[in-house]
Amino acid sequence: MFARVLVANRGEIAVRVIRALEELGVESVAVYSELDRNALHARRADAAYLLGGAKPAESYLNIARILEVARESGAEAIHPGYGFLAENASFAAACEEAGIVFIGPPASAIEAMGSKTRARELMAGAGVPIVPGTTEPVASAAEARRIIESEIGYPVAVKAAGGGGGKGFRVALAASELEDAFAGAAREGEKFFGDDTVYLERYLPDPRHIEVQVLADAHGAVVHLGERDCSIQRRHQKLIEESPAPAWIVDAALRERIGRIATDAARAVGYRGAGTIEGLLADGEYFFLEMNTRVQVEHCVTELTSGIDIVKTGIRVAAGEPLAFSQDDVVLRGHAIECRINAEDAALGFVPAPGRIVTYHEPSGPGVRVDSGVVAGSEISPMYDPMIAKLIVWDSDRAEATRRMLRALAEYEIGGVTTLLPFHRALFATEQWERGETCRDLLGDPDWLRASAVSSADALADADPPGDGAVALDYTVEVSGRRFDVKVIGPPGGPLASANGGPRTKRALRERSKTSVSGDVLSSPMQGTVLKIAIELGAQVEEGTLVAIIEAMKMENEVTAHKSGTVAELPISVGASVGAGEPLAVISSPA
């Protein structure tokens, strides 16, 4: 076993890996950006080293500096976590050249499966079913149009060849949407993965997203740990995961079949370590989608149902140890569910909501696990992913796990930032969740999303406080040994925050949802960077016309015109930073 391992990541996954190293008796080395000087992962590790500036390219993507820190600290191995350099074949190769063990698959496997086009070609050659589409990169939107019209048809998914995690994924429902979809997928592919090539797939409108966890050692053993259902997504990024899939979705025969597909795929590329085969299930057909050559965000639910520590197993495999179990030893018990607790505002279409966490209290009790990298006072920066934590529960079956999740969500308190806690509480109470649906109807319904944020607020959700602009605060008092909850109505301007950092009243929610609009002025609903301007000064626009694309917290957000009229002012430029509330455009009403 290694004596010292460098963790080349941040946030909850860095803390998760550090904990695994502690249990293995291995010293941990953290790295951090200037923005993360006081982050939990940097304080938790045995040693911590500054990488560079806040931008990922200056820190968590800086291969030369990470290897320099590894040498300086005496680390024998590097664990990349997920994201950043986790699926970067060049980084894995550079570690090998430097004599440092990369805790993950060999560079050849990352390269083979990291390129989605090559992975599709390999899987098709191995007899693994793939979603109909191209296995070669598509050079231009014009070429894409020709292929779609002659071979695939609409709707079509345009995807970055090096993409993953929902990045570089665009859908064109019709020919009129293809050019923007192609440009968006290429742009995100270049930005997040350094590869602007794209490919095409037939878009399946409402499939189940079913993935299989695999583990492989350097001695030829490959096992799978069953499936996860990750069908509840927004912007093709996961929000809720469960393991196993609902029994009426994946039965024992299908589990065996897709498990065999997963292990065959891993063997085909000489895989080693923890990985995930992702697929789509539609009308009884299962299609290979991609392989994630790293530990997944949602690995926790599989750990709870299998009893196998995936992170520690990956470290042991990297140290040369064989898997300590065979496929026959893997027995799934009970049901696990995971919620991603993101700093996002579901009521406003999941826009990022960075800020400082003021109060923080995690739930606990039987069958409850929280993987987080924050404490009270932590800053959720627009520079990085908006995920604050993961809430995972386990119980005997899906219904019992759902009840436990609702209890845990009610205990979770995050003050100072808006989070998805209200959204999750509302969704788990729906008939759609109970029936095991994909919930795409709810996630695509702005009215339901707004209502979910209101109905899940923990106090004053059903009534506005008296007086225009008045605010309300909750206090607990004790009189003669009896506890009372007291509501105090105060003047405008007072603090008004719920336990999840969101608005406490319907009025507050309505007012907040209008903060991006003031008369003719369309303001940015978030802090971020202008990636694209879709209108010109003096142009006539209709309500709903795309005005700009703002990148915030590794997500692209479309901002549309709030009214019809003429673009009278356009005080923004591509590449410029904008703050929340700053004007993007002035749209004057028709004369």
SSE topology sketch:
Elements: E1 4-7, H1 11-24, E2 27-33, H2 40-44, E3 47-52, H3 63-73, E4 77-79, H4 89-97, E5 101-102, H5 107-114, H6 116-125, H7 141-152, E6 156-164, E7 167-172, H8 178-193, E8 198-202, E9 208-216, E10 222-234, E11 237-243, H9 252-268, E12 273-282, E13 285-292, H10 299-306, H11 310-318, E14 335-342, E15 344-345, E16 351-352, E17 355-356, E18 359-361, E19 368-372, E20 379-380, E21 387-395, H12 398-411, E22 413-415, H13 421-428, H14 431-434, H15 440-443, H16 446-455, E23 471-479, E24 482-490, H17 506-513, E25 517-518, E26 521-523, E27 528-533, E28 540-541, E29 546-552, E30 555-560, E31 565-569, E32 577-578, E33 583-588
Parallel strand pairs: 1-2, 1-4, 2-3, 4-5
Antiparallel strand pairs: 6-7, 6-8, 9-10, 9-12, 10-11, 11-14, 12-13, 14-21, 15-16, 17-20, 18-22, 19-21, 23-24, 25-26, 26-33, 27-29, 27-32, 28-31, 29-30, 31-33
Helix pairs in contact: 4-5, 7-8, 12-13, 13-16
Any descriptors?
31% strand, single chain, 28% helix, 591 residues, Rossmann fold, 17 helices, alpha+beta
Please provide a written account of the structure.
The chain has 591 residues and is an alpha+beta fold. Among the domains are: 4-103, 3-Layer(aba) Sandwich (Rossmann fold); 132-202, ATP-grasp fold, A domain (Dna Ligase, domain 1, 2-Layer Sandwich), CATH 3.30.1490.20; 208-333, 2-Layer Sandwich (D-amino Acid Aminotransferase, Chain A, domain 1), CATH 3.30.470.20; 471-511, no CATH class; 514-588, RNA polymerase II/Efflux pump adaptor protein, barrel-sandwich hybrid domain (OB fold (Dihydrolipoamide Acetyltransferase, E2P)), CATH 2.40.50. 28% of the residues lie in helices and 31% in strands. It is built from 17 helices and 33 strands. The strands form nine sheets. Strands 13-12-9-10-11-14-21-19 form an eight-stranded antiparallel β-sheet. A five-stranded parallel β-sheet has the order 3-2-1-4-5. Strand 1 (4-7), helix 1 and strand 2 form a beta-alpha-beta unit. Helix 4 packs antiparallel against helix 5 (107-114), helix 7 (141-152) crosses helix 8 (178-193) and helix 12 (398-411) runs antiparallel to helix 13. The chain is globular. The termini are far apart. Mean pLDDT is 87; it is low at 456-466 and 493-515.
